[in-house]
Input
Amino acid sequence: MSIVMSAKMDFPYAAQFQELVSSGNLLILTINALVLGGFEALYLISKFKPALLVPTVWLGVGVFYALLVGMAILYFAGAATL
Amino acid sequence: MRYWSVWLFCISLALRLFSIGASIFWYDEAFTAAVTRLDFASMMQAVHGDVHPPLWYFIDWSVSHLFGQSEFLLRVPAALFGSLGCVALYALMNRLVGQREAAFSSGLMSIMPGQLYYSQEARMYSLFTLLVLLAAYAIVTRRWRMMGICFALILFTQTLGIVYVGLMAAYSLFVSRGDSLRACLLGAVAYLPQLPTTILQITKIGSGYWIPEPGNFGAALMYVNFTTLFVRWPPWALLSAMIASGGFTIGSVFILRHDLRRLALPMLLAFGPALTLYLISVMWRPMILDRALLPSGAILSALWGMAGSRLSRRFAKPAMAVALPVLLAGLISYYIDPNEQRPLTYVPADLIRPNWQTGDVVYHLNVDSVISQSYYLREKPFYLMPDRDDFVRGGLTSETRGALGINNHLLAFDELVAHGYRRVWFIGGWAVMSSKAELDTLKFILQRYPVVAEWHLDKTRLYESILYLVRL
Output
């Protein structure tokens, strides 16, 4: 909800959207950290231990699917709504 | 490769026509249907007070008056433009990097759920994407007149197209050392008749228009929401899809980093508009409208496709282990339940019609409800709760409401009895856009009048819709 609009009008449920956006901000920060951190790690490995690069990429794929399955379990258990 | 363009167009069109009429019109599409049902002069008046330029409405107005209106008919032009957009991307990338990578890029665009979604929507976004890709093609082939015409058409299609036009004009002037100036001016001059309307729209509607505040969330959504992968993904897979999307993008830029000079225009179109809108949002007014970045989504698929085709075998395998399931899941989840594709998934008319009696009337607590139901309940008598004149909800100015005939239907709820009505149908509940006046009226109605029946239509974290039938 635009702040401009909330200030002008009285929208009792506007805070609900703002709340969702705020939780989304946190989510995006987490994703940024994961993705950028992952690439940073790959870059460092390629510099100092090139032999470990391909296994690390596969490890990243494993982490990706573990996260997918983990989120599905949490979601269906009712612990995460996203 | 010889007939790739033809195959690409046919496959893209087949994917876009499949289940195209299955989902009902949501608010924006219902607005298109309402506006294009009018005579030409009234349509232009309605569009004059709206937030978007007239080109798309003119196309769907022609379809409506030639063939009639239905979900299928009003969405078919979008499917055609979306399919042509894939071919335009192929032509652009073929010129820039060669056939193989162009085929990968355009193939990816044809199955990208975000592109499919807007190629099945009775709105202007697939046309907008096509025109941006054609303008980019005109720049790389140095067809300046074609570029100028595309610029004008972009500006007549989407107001935020000015960001794309501005960036492409600056790029063309730089690479042509000023040769494209006349064509840029041609585009500007062609747009002049529309300019006063745009200024009016920005001043009249802009301050009340609903666009989220900028932030990490909004900025990231610009890329990953509708432009690429995220249509109809289950909530538990969203986090992984966002990581995949971010990973593809960063990985693609890394892989293509040595080719930046050749790919300057695609890179500019992929990231420049989002960055520009983000800066405008921070410095002036919220402008982050994810669907207006659909052309960037198309270019982004091109970058992903190109980077993917350049991967060595040892990295291609892990990349495919993520990309293929993600892309397939995106594509399949889009088609699993076609009726769930749009935000509005219920048709109150299906409940109202069989239970309709003489002396019934439909009452709307806000103008959004009038528009959303206008296609499905167009033959039923209706009234709208009067609201403040300066309340430009959903971008509908008084001028647009007047052209649509809504202003003749303003009436307070307790005056319905005097007009001879005995039962009233209306949608209650709440939404983030519900005003206090609207919620107070709902409370008043439910306290004062007996509810004959109620149906719980839909409930999410951002709204709840309940259809009520009350006796006066």
